[in-house]
């Protein structure tokens, strides 16, 4: 997945999907630590390349990943 907007635009997009947590700057990438009380999901974004990666337990990604891809496609 890729996202070539600003951090603020990405934050708005994921909040629109009901994903809340805190953002951490990790050198070359930004990371959203999703705080839903159930999962260990993280959303990593490298602004330089636009690479966007949802990481964590595959069973927990199953619901969010397709919705995220659909939201990203809707931006095109």
TrEMBL record:
<protein>
    <recommendedName>
        <fullName>CobW C-terminal domain-containing protein</fullName>
    </recommendedName>
</protein>
